[in-house]
What does this fold into?
Amino acid sequence: MLIAPVQDGVITQRPMSMPTARGPVTTALFRKITDLDTADDLVGLVQAAVAASADVLIDDDLQLALFCLYELHYGGIEGVADRLEWDPTLLTARAVIEDALEAALRERVAVPALPEPTSDAVSARLFALAAADSGPSVARFMARKATAKQAQEFLILRTIYTLKEADPHSWAIPRLSGRAKAALVEIQSDEYGAGRPQRMHSAIFARTLRAADVDDAYGAYLDVVPAITLTSVNMMTMFGLHRRLRGAIVGHLAAFEMTSSIPNKFYGDGFRRLGFDADATWYFDEHVEADAVHEQIAGRDLAGGLAEADPSLLQDILFGAAACLAVDGWAGEQQLSAWSAGQSALRSN
It folds into this structure.
């Protein structure tokens, strides 16, 4: 297992270790990125797997493949050449999975009626959408019922995004301008510690992991993270990486911030109930205050500002917000269902 060194409380991130393959696509992909002379028809395998998949949103093989393909644009994978980030075959294979993922999301996610493309109207609609979300409350379960083992599983599931918190949304910065861009940069500055590396949210979360005796190396638990959790992160990256989906990543961030403050209060209360100290709860307590501010900026200035500047993006702003709530709800439902049955929420190898 690759352990990231900690200096002055800040993780120095290294490329993640290669995970275990989950099917023919990831088997072929891992051969491709470590042995360039492989004869595997990766694109053909991906096309066949997408066609045969019962549900791409919970397909372990496809979601892990997409996650690893995206990781080439983030911190990289141990033993994989950096130049493969732009390999034409990998990009073609990635596009096949992305097309299937986007199609599945657009088919399954209900988008509310569009408001007028004004800052006030868009913000109000987004807040109403977030308030109406009736998905399963992992936060309330954590506050009242979770065991110490379940609290560790909760953290393990969150490592897949939170150890690189804010990065998927940052892809949108150069794709925006004016008021929306300024709002996004303001939010992201807070996420990255406002210039203080020890206060980066990813670094604070790593501190929580260490306090809870959970490995803080990025990707350490990738093998036990279920497909729907990978889908949640893959969706963010897909929205962020594609300029045509800039409305969706903005809507996603708005919903993400609007549904963060209160749940994080419950998470902090749950960890305190279990006897964890301030090292474990700092991350959650930080988000109670920060995200109460961020949600206003994200609703009015980011999403509302983008809609006013370009009304043609309004549909995707609402789609991104609704997709955020839907996919996170599906992931939470799977998690609570396992715990309610006395089972682990983690994937068994």
User: Anything to note?
Assistant: The beta strands are 6-7, 10-11. The domain at 119-340 is CATH 1.20.910.10 (Heme Oxygenase; Chain A). The CA atoms of residues 138 and 332 lie 6 Å apart.
